[in-house]
Structure formats: structure tokens, C-alpha cells
Amino acid sequence: MGYAHGEPDAVPSTYMEYEQALALGKRMLEEQSHAMIEVQPSLGEIARELRQASGSPSPSGRVVSATQDGNGQLVICRESGRCR
Question: In the chain, which end has fewer C-beta atoms inside a 10 angstrom radius, N or C?
Fold first, then answer.
């Protein structure tokens, strides 16, 4: 006959009231989101900082826009007004 056993460093489960568990989970999520925001800047923030440092209005130095025509096709326009 075999017996089930766990790891030697296993910690027994603990239980708490639903409302307490919900409050703990919310607090943990808030702490994680604050930690992530403070530590890691967004990709947009990084791009903005690089553009400001280089003095360029956009990464390539050109302004382009992307839209859709009436058929759903991609239309890319340069600042000169030329579109494809």
C-alpha cells in the first residue's frame, strides 16, 4: 500500500472568510499594479522620451497617418498629402 506525501517544505493550507480574502486579493492587485507602473515605463513613454531627446516629431522624422477607405483597405498618407 502506498501513501501520498508532499515536499518537506510544504505549508499547510489556511482558510479565511470570503470578504477577508476578497479584500486581501484587491490589496495585492493594487500593490502589484503600483509596483509595475513605477518600475516599468510604457512603450509610449519610452518612444516619447526618445523623440524629445532627438528633437524629431516622429521616429522617422516624417508625419504619416493610416486610415481605411470605404472598402476597408489601408490608406497611408504622408504629410505632403500623397496617399497610397
Answer: N
Closest CA to 44 of 34, 52, 55: 52
14: left (phi over 0), alpha (psi -120 to 50) or beta: beta
Instruction: Give whole-number Cα distances, 22 to 10, 18, 74, in Å.
Output: 24, 6, 46
How many Cβ atoms are within 10 Å of 38's Cβ, its own excluded?
8
User: Structural domain boundaries of the chain?
Assistant: 18-78
Q: How many residues are recorded in the chain?
A: 84
Joined together, the cell numbers standing for residue 31 give: 500593490
Cα–Cα distance list, 24 to 9, 30, 33, 76 (Å): 24, 10, 14, 49
Q: pTM of this prediction?
A: 0.30
- The answer to whether 68 and 74 are in contact (CB under 8 A) is yes
